[in-house]
Structure formats: structure tokens, C-alpha cells
Amino acid sequence: MKRILIVIALLCNVAAFSQNVEVTGGLNSNNFFDFQKNDGHYTSSYNSDYGYVIRVGIDNIKAGWMAFRFTLSYDKYSGELTASDGGLGSGYTTNAKIDKSVISLGVFPLNFRIIDRIDLNFGFELSGLVSENINGTSSGWSAGTQHWSYDLNDKYDRYSSKFYFGLCGRIAYDFKISDKLIISPQYSYYLGLSDEFDEFPESTKAMRHYFCLGLKRKIK
């Protein structure tokens, strides 16, 4: 929490020298996925779920010839998974419903403006886990032994990874309501490159669609 407060303070200080500060809120649709659904005995399936995001953004931060966009977000998202693996003499399956929240710092080095109304932003996000809620079980069998099953909360103190990294993009359309205030309906997308969980299925990643409304104020 101390590190999060330091980041917020730094962004607020930077905002005094920026051109635009934006507060955004909206819904997200999250889906977990992996790249090894047909790898050996491994199988997996995922169901998407909805959450929400609250975000503060700062535009037009100059660094030499480049102009950056920075964001600080609180993101709550959910999803369901079923994954199985094993061998010739054993097998195991995990079924879980996951709700988690993260704090994310977004950095956007590629920013474009079209017809003075449409913003296109491309960059990456670094996230840290704030909380998780796991409802699920792991069960299995092996030759010569009884079937076994346990609750994930009884087995693990923390199921999710602590930190995340992914690529993100954003498109927003600006409606000017005064000389200093702008309303921006926007869509953004996050593609996770890091693993969502420390435990099986540990290769799971996340992708999210965001549908938000932003209120932007011009500082300069």
C-alpha cells in the first residue's frame, strides 16, 4: 500500500506540468486463456465474466521529442476455468471461479490524434495484486489409490501471482463540453503476457475488453 501511495503522489505532481488529466470509469469483460490446450494430456476451458475499472490518466507528458500517456487504475475482474492434466497412471482437474483486483500503472509511448477528436494510445501495463477470492476445487486419481479432492482455499494461502505485465491499446472519441472539459467514450484492450496464477494451471493468462466513459480536464 505504501508503494501505491507513492506512485499516486508522483503522478499528481507530474499532472501539474501536463496538459490533460482524465478520470475514467466503466466495465470490463475478462477472459482467461492459455496457449497449450492440446499439449499432451492437458486440456482447459475458460468462461468470461464482468468487472469494473476506475482509472486516472495523464496525457501529453513530454520527454524529449516524445509525448507519453500515463494511467493509474484499480481493476476488478473475474473468470472461470476448468483445467486437467496427468499421465498414463494418474490425472487431476481444477475447477475454479476467480475474482481478483489489481492496481495497474500504464505507460503509453505511442500516441496519435486523428481529426482533433480521436485518440489512439498503445503501450503496456504493470500490475500488482490487491486481493483475490477463489471458489474452487482440485481433484484427481492415480493407479492403486483412492480418488482425492480438496478445496483450493484450504490448500493455498495465495493462488494468484503477485505481479502482472501486458500490452494495451485504447481508442477514445472526445466531445468538448467547454473550453477545459471533455467527455470521452472509449474502448481499450489488455493482453496479458505474464501468468495469472502461481498454481495449476500456472500458464493461464488474461485478456480484457474495457468500455468506459472519461471526463478530461485541460490543465494548460
Provide an overview of this structure.
The chain has two helices and ten strands; from the N terminus they run H-E-E-E-E-E-E-H-E-E-E-E. With 220 residues, the protein is mainly beta. Residues 14-18 have low confidence and may be disordered.
What's the short story on this structure?
The chain has 220 residues and is mainly beta. The chain is built from two helices and ten strands, in the order αββββββαββββ. The chain has helices at 2-15, 152-155; strands at 20-33, 43-63, 66-86, 90-114, 118-142, 148-151, 163-173, 175-176, 181-192, 205-218.
What is the N-to-C succession of helices and strands?
HEEEEEEHEEEE
Separate helix tally: 2
Q: How would you state the average pLDDT, rounded?
A: 88
Topology, number of strands: 10
Rg measurement, Å: 21 Å
Q: Which percent bin holds the helix content? A: under 10%
Low-confidence stretches: 14-18
Strand order of the largest sheet: 1-2-3-4-5-7-9-10
Shape descriptor reads elongated
Distance between the termini: 31 Å
Spell out the blueprint of helices and strands.
Blueprint: H1 2-15, E1 20-33, E2 43-63, E3 66-86, E4 90-114, E5 118-142, E6 148-151, H2 152-155, E7 163-173, E8 175-176, E9 181-192, E10 205-218
Antiparallel strand pairs: 1-2, 1-10, 2-3, 3-4, 4-5, 5-6, 5-7, 7-9, 8-9, 9-10
